Amino acid sequence: xxxxVSQQSSLCQNCAMSGMCxxxxxxxxxxxxxxxIYHKSDALFRAGENFDAIYILRSGSVKSSLIxxxxxxxxxxxxFPGDLLGLDGxxxxxxxxxxxxxxxxxxxxxxxxxxxxxxxxxxxxxFKLLQGMSEALNVxxxxxxxxxxMNASQKFASFLLNLSEKFESRGLSSHTFDLSMSRVDIANYxxxxxxxxxxxxxxxQKEQTINVNKRRITIRDxxxxxxxxxxxxxxxxxxIPKVKVSSSHHSSVIY
Amino acid sequence: xxxxVSQQSSLCQNCAMSGMCxxxxxxxxxxxxxxxIYHKSDALFRAGENFDAIYILRSGSVKSSLIxxxxxxxxxxxxFPGDLLGLDGxxxxxxxxxxxxxxxxxxxxxxxxxxxxxxxxxxxxxFKLLQGMSEALNVxxxxxxxxxxMNASQKFASFLLNLSEKFESRGLSSHTFDLSMSRVDIANYxxxxxxxxxxxxxxxQKEQTINVNKRRITIRDxxxxxxxxxxxxxxxxxxIPKVKVSSSHHSSVIY
DNA sequence: TCTCAAGGCTGATCTGCATCAAGGTGAGCC
DNA sequence: GGCTCACCTTGATGCAGATCAGCCTTGAGA
Lengths: 255, 255
Prior knowledge:
Two copies of one chain form a homodimer.
Chain A lengths: L34 E4 L4 E3 L7 E7 L2 E6 L5 E7 L4 E2 L12 E4 L3 E7 H10 L1 H27 L2 H18 L6 E3 L4 H8 L3 H13 L3 E4 L2 E4 L2 H8 L23 E2 L1
Antiparallel strand pairs in A: 1-8, 2-7, 3-6, 3-8, 4-5, 4-7, 9-11, 10-11
The structure holds a DNA duplex (30 and 30 nucleotides).
């Protein structure tokens, strides 16, 4: 049984799962759950550990990674406040990913049985969870798309724009932000060499598209980044097989 | 309101969502839902269409794809009987993917409100759905891992082994099977050129690892494929940064 | 029987980026 | 101060696989 601390933080306001913390019977009193603080390079959980809860990131940032048979680490995502963590565990009751914090962060834990009870009662909680998982799925698929269709410049520009959007949606500056992950992490995530990431940073800075100071990025020409993603700006031209419009559509025979 | 046809097919036996079709009050009578047949290159749904149901593939095979801004198609997955389809739609209430059949296939449709009702009542249905989505997520992440760590030979061998496992788990031969997708589809999915796929097929056949006859594949040396995935067999050597074992672990301060 | 398009195979060439090598910077610590 | 280590940058070189070009096979339809 978990104990609730009767103090609600402003960080809870935008939480997708806030419905779980609000006590609907006592209208003014809200149940608030305990929060845990982690520090840089701590693990929230590791691959192979039992799954018994999902988490919501309240502040800070995390990376998720898989380890290949050969011992290589592959970062599969970066997460920011409001994001759901631990969704990989439902499949086997065991985590397949390892989650490591990139900086001092705070998370909110929701035990599975607690979640299941809430789902039984509330259609909106059911939907929120499915929506969260669906979003994670779509992010992954989009990433695969980019991974296969883009060259290094495009991937890197796309990465910066994604970060920019994430910060903006969280009420932070879309133009100036600090990278909480290292160049090595970025390279790993994007599937390229560190040297390539480094060269991208230098190149984009020379063009005045961005400004780089250690881990602080300032975007000076947002449009240029968008153009770069679309390949307008880069040297890269690719063979682009246009998608054929198939005539058959929603054919059907019921039996 | 949907009408149920009082005929249950053997295809329903292994369905993850069979709990939805069994009427638990009347123990011997089972509710069976309508099934729809589609043909090769029909679309189950297209990106942009409203989401109002998920589907279970009963027979045949499907590919899911995204279209990039530049009109490029990226195949994000192949699906086989028993797989859940349409999970991408929860996020925005609109499908982000397009699903096209690779051959004559049959699907079972579960409307969202019907699913939601079932989830309200049954913990096992809730779990099955979360499990299905979690699996999809893990498959994607594993794919990203492979995509970034493997060379063409490894990816292709891995692709064959994945298919082999899928067929085996469905009671079919793990050694001999027909590819329902074209070489172009395989190449697109794996993020390589068609020519590379073609060369892989030829090369693996020359080595006697597999036998190729049009779209019929016979695996003659399963172990060799596994070795290939692990890089033993391929020429490719890569820089492998071993994962550091961090000393800090599950640190915690509650506040 | 001929035509044509879709799908597939193979050899030659080119290039984006990984890899290798080496040097720079700054924080923490003795 | 000076040492070490983690992290980052830059230049030179090589190669896996994309791209290009051309040909073969198959099957549908006239």
